[in-house]
């Protein structure tokens, strides 16, 4: 059901959003969780990355969670390492791992949706050349000196421990070397045989048990930008043809100019958007070559007035709309169907079955909306 709906909806969205390289669009009157469908469409119908920049971390995490249910396994989140006052984030180490992992995947041209927010985007990062210089790639059946590998780990300040639990640690047991790279979600186990990589595998740090064999692994140390002469943002890691989607960037003010932490200004961020495909939405926009209108309405509020909700669904159905209840919990949908069926009987509304009035769409959405152009409604 999800794939059929998405493909149909993407065709409708595609008739509205169509641009050549370096185009700059502003989509007006966005409602609810519609931006997630735009991002999913851009990802599915172009062989490029899509970067979604939101005003704050809360909105970015909401977008990340929604997209993970629409495009599983292809969504990255880039967090901030520092707070607005310049102090290190309390989850600094975890956030650094997320950031390095995301940059590594972008550098290796893995097509992804990347979600972030203004404070994270304005943090200055290493340029591509320096990033690649620190990256070491291991391949199965590759010849490598046991001693060289240990010297590499020592040179890049990996910490030796009995067991590997956190990024930046490594352990040695005979010819087996466990490494927790900052670029990986899970640590890597390297099994050597006569100075050759016999096996590479990922393992759970909690159980120390391997669960997946791989043919290639990236080793990246803890790399942080300490050069204040560098003015590079995540946008500079994108490739030609990649798309940047921004919400309300024209309303965002530079809020970190009074701290010692160097950040890029909004002007520098906007300048980096040149030669990129850009879509803006929200209350206002910085610039645009074309305005795109929508016919969206917010989800009506019914509170617990289920009889009004069912009448609304029936009216929508009669007018040719397809209604969807959005939830990852199938049981919630079943309970709603039972309520709808009971009210249909009470109101003596003629319909074959409740499932025709409202269908199930397995996903996560923070706000519903009605698309009057495509005749779809999400609740």
Structural class: alpha/beta
Sequence of strands across the biggest β-sheet: 3-4-2-13-14-1-15
Helical residue percent band: 25-40%
Number of H- or I-type helical stretches:
11
Shape: globular
Oligomeric state of the chains in view:
single chain
Please tally the β strands and state the result. 20
Rg over alpha carbons: 25 Å
Point out poorly predicted stretches. none
Task: Note the main sheet.
Answer: 7 strands, parallel
Question: What is the rounded distance between the termini?
Answer: 16 Å
Task: Estimate the strand proportion.
Answer: 15-25%
Nearest-integer average pLDDT? 88
Written overview of the protein:
The protein has helices at residues 2-14, 34-45, 57-70, 92-107, 118-121, 128-134, 146-155, 266-272, 306-318, 330-347, 354-357; strands at 24-27, 50-54, 75-77, 113-117, 136-139, 159-160, 169-173, 176-179, 188-192, 197-203, 210-214, 216-219, 243-247, 277-281, 290-292, 296-298, 322-326, 359-361, 369-371, 376-378. It is of the alpha/beta class and 379 residues long. The strands form four sheets. It has a seven-stranded parallel sheet with strand order 3-4-2-13-14-1-15, with helices on both faces.
